[in-house]
Amino acid sequence: MSTGKKVAIAMSGGVDSSVAAMLLKKQGYDVVGFTMKLWYDETCQVDGRENACCDEKSVADARKVADTLGIPFYLVDARKVFKKEVVDYFIEEFKAMRTPNPCVKCNEKIKFGWLLDFAQKAGCEYLATGHYARITSESKVESPKSKGCGAYHLLKAVDEKKDQSYFLYNLNQNQLTRVIFPLGDLTKDEVRKMAKEANLPVHEKVESQEICFVQENDYRKFLERHIPKEYFKEGQIVDSKGYVVGKHKGLVNYTIGQRKGVDQAISISGKEKAPAYVVGYDVKRNRLIVGDDSEVYANEMTIKSNTLDTKNLERKDLSVKIRYKSKAVECKVSKLPNKKYLVQFNEPQRAITPGQSAVFYDGDEVTGGGIIE
């Protein structure tokens, strides 16, 4: 059966996008594979080889899968836009003492921005990826943003352990109408089994958990090559009362809630000494502020957002995730001026980190998100 519809599949060279491409072909789509060349770090050396941060193996793996499936394959150069929208953002956020989420930004600006437009110009009606998420539509529900095509809804994947809807909260109605997630109703185990049964060249490939443009798996080394040395200037570690308890190795090396690299044990209100965790920064005085574990928790946060559906803010069952791997917790959201919102949790949350994304859910449906301030 042929749908007659041309679909671009973003191929990373991994199992998920490879199986997504295979499923689309089986469903009768006219499938075209695209792999984006994203990053070429001229300052990077891995195993003595300069410029090793361009992942040529992933490109080769994607090409092998495309050949196996018998679909056209194209390598497209997205390095310029990727550097501007993702890498520069990543660097500037750390310089501002915020902890960025490059995957959220990449999905918004690159995969479902630049690549989606590129694919359409190449004659493709849709863009598909290997993300674990679902899109549904209600044809009878009209939305001002959907231009008469009905409202589209982003949902969690069936496999909650692999669900990636957190990274996709910025997708708007126009994008949702043009995107396909073939793996949304599958589990990771089922995807692996399909890849093996089809003898795809990547069926045993281990998936990457690291930032794609930080090939040495250490973002601090990456930052050392791309930001001035002043950001790594040593300074004092103090407790929440201002007492000096040690020295830090540059504020940019530490994130909220971090214990690793903070070797101090501190005494709080006369109690026995306890491990110290990062609770904040005094940037003007180049001081790292630490406290015991109880000081890492908070009952509320402020976010900035352009995507929240304000009609849903009063729902009592609204929940929020403050990081990808965190549990969604019930919350109350109040609107503030300048597209800001106050989020109050039903239970205190640990290590709320400025720069990270807060994503809101109404059951399985994503209702929007924002950046933690």
Largest sheet: 6 strands, antiparallel, barrel
Broad shape? globular
Pairing-aware structural class of the strands and helices? Answer: alpha+beta
- What's the tally of helices? 7
Low-confidence stretches: 45-54, 139-149
Strand content: 25-35%
Folded structure, characterized:
This protein has 373 residues and is an alpha+beta fold. It is 23% helix and 29% strand. The strands form 6 sheets. It has a 6-stranded antiparallel β-barrel. A 5-stranded parallel sheet has the order 5-2-1-6-9, sandwiched between helices. Strand 20 and strand 21 form a beta hairpin. Helix 1 packs parallel to helix 2, helix 1 crosses helix 6 and helix 3 packs antiparallel against helix 4. The protein starts with 5 loop residues before the first strand and ends with a strand.
Search tags:
29% strand, six-stranded antiparallel β-barrel, alpha+beta, single chain
Concise summary:
The chain has about 375 residues and is an alpha+beta fold.
Q: Topology, pairings included?
A:
Elements: E1 6-10, H1 15-26, E2 30-37, E3 45-46, E4 49-50, H2 56-69, E5 73-77, H3 79-95, H4 102-121, E6 126-128, E7 133-138, E8 151-156, H5 173-176, E9 179-180, H6 188-197, H7 219-226, E10 235-239, E11 244-248, E12 265-266, E13 274-275, E14 277-282, E15 287-291, E16 297-304, E17 318-321, E18 329-336, E19 340-350, E20 357-362, E21 365-372
Parallel strand pairs: 1-2, 1-6, 2-5, 6-9, 10-15
Antiparallel strand pairs: 3-4, 7-8, 10-11, 12-13, 14-15, 16-19, 16-21, 17-18, 17-20, 18-19, 20-21
Helix pairs in contact: 1-2, 1-6, 3-4
